[in-house]
Amino acid sequence: MGALLNMRVSVTSKAFSKNDYLIRYLSENFLDINLNNSLHKLSDDELIVFLKDSDAVILALEEINERVLRALPNLQVISKFGVGLDNIDFAACQKYGVKVLHRPGVNRFAVAELTLCLTISLFRNVFYTASKLSTGNWIKNGGRGLFGKTIGIIGFGNAGMAFADLLAPFDCNLKVVDILDKKLELKKYKAEQVNLEDLLKASDLISIHVPLTIETVGMVNHSFLDAMKESGYLINTARGEVVDLIALREALLNNKIAGAALDVYDVEPPTDYELLRLDNLIPTPHIAGNSYEATKAMGESAVDLLCEYFKERNN
Length: 315
Hints:
Elements: E1 5-11, H1 14-17, H2 20-27, E2 30-35, H3 44-50, E3 56-59, H4 66-70, E4 77-80, H5 90-95, E5 99-101, H6 108-123, H7 126-133, E6 150-154, H8 158-167, E7 173-177, H9 183-189, E8 192-193, H10 196-202, E9 205-208, H11 222-227, E10 233-236, H12 245-253, E11 259-262, H13 273-276, E12 281-283, H14 292-314
Parallel strand pairs: 1-2, 1-3, 3-4, 4-5, 6-7, 6-9, 7-8, 9-10, 10-11, 11-12
Helix pairs in contact: 2-14, 6-8
């Protein structure tokens, strides 16, 4: 271990701030660290106070906007804990000379694992029959197999491709929608890049792996769900705002689709218990990207990026 860097690094991430290994890893590299011991997401006002005199921040879900940056003249750099960047105002960062560091795909395997878990659970009726058995109802309905099914993947980046890797033993027919031309990647997976309409019509299950942008907010709406197969399933492990939850609740209640699984929500924790209690929904509490290994990898990556940044600045 080299000399400690004499910079003040603040950590907003709750997962990082309660992880002994990551705290030790950060302390081994930086002399002055500041952790979010409140263990809740910080408001703008709280964030300004928390980041006062900080040279760097390891950022989770808090909003970095112009008002925040204007109040933090000492802040030099943001290192993202996780992969989503929609909470950072890049124009404001450029205006105030604040560098943004991130490493794409660092938690892709964890996200892909949970997506596969939810996929099998939906097809094989695992969650529904287990929950019924816990109340004394023996419902012996094993659902359908995953082998050979048509799977639609919307967003074929790091997580989408990691999910495709895990599907390989099941000999699925993969349909892909992405804003970029994925010809090179498609060859590896024997997948087909199609338009959204064709994917919705053909897919037995659709998994969402897109970032949150103007184009993807509310993408899964009434017309999207109406175009799906009635026997089809939907999974969202990406961003909560991508799915219109009112439209999804109506589709599930009216059996317009067979079922869905959600790991992310537009407001977290969610409070729409009518939706959460539906028999044909599997709700999980935003756990796709935070396995033990993924949390460790995301934290190490955020610290390493800061070390590289400050060492380059000092040379």
